[in-house]
Amino acid sequence: MDKSGHCPLCNGVLDGDHDGRNTYPDLYNEVKKANFVYRLLMFLCILGIVGIDLGCFVLTNTYKWGIIAVLCVIYTMWMLYVSFNDRAGYRVRILTGVFFAVILVILIDWIIGYNGWSINYILPSTMLFVDLLIVILMFINKRSWQSYLVFQIGMVLICLIPAIFIKIGLIYKPIVAEVAIAVTVVECIASIMLGGATAKHELKRRFHVR
User: Fold this and answer.
1) Structural domain of 121
2) Residues pairing with 23 in the sheet
């Protein structure tokens, strides 16, 4: 495929000038449009928060569902921020999105009268989902699979949370949490052992271990 008519940086189609030469596309207008859309969406989210608060004040005597709706809007604003932030890679967008979604679900469970379903099922199920997602991303990005080791180690550290919850009795149906902890730890160990020298080099580079 002939790439001479495309920008080497953004892969956009080059515009021809009067002399028959190709010129680089004007990215300024595209960035300006994207920034406007971002500001517009954030403004609508803020209007949504104000409208929810006013609606709860006028129509009901409880703020319970209003607080939940506001938390959902705040989560949406965070996802908009990372989505429009060029410095946030897709891994940061996915993992932080999942992380804050779990916190949101736990808060909802607590606000509506804590029943423990968020801690017993949602938290460990999300851990299993992230474990699977990391494996899929490692296979998709085979050339840089070792860059996901730090996420696996982070997941192992996160396993301390459900382990503590099991110990103190917050998780009273531990089977899903125990499976999630076991899968996470085994996945991390397998990646390090099977990765061989590449995995060791990545760990040394990340954690400055000699």
Assistant:
1) 115-210
2) 15
Closest CA to 160 of 190, 193, 184: 184
Are 127 and 169 within one domain? yes
- 30 shares its domain with 66: yes
Are residue 206 and residue 122 in the same domain, yes or no?
yes
Residue 157 belongs to some domain of the structure = yes
Q: For the chain, 210 residues long, give each residue's pLDDT as a single digit of tens.
A: 444 555 555 555 555 554 555 455 556 677 788 888 889 999 998 888 888 777 776 666 667 777 888 888 888 888 888 888 777 677 778 778 888 888 999 899 888 888 889 999 999 999 999 999 999 988 988 888 888 888 899 899 999 999 999 999 889 989 999 999 999 999 999 999 988 888 888 888 877 655
Non-local (6+) Cβ contacts of 162 within 8 A are 119, 123, 124, 127, 171, 177, 180, 181
Q: Is 174 among the domain residues?
A: yes
Is 78 inside any structural domain? yes
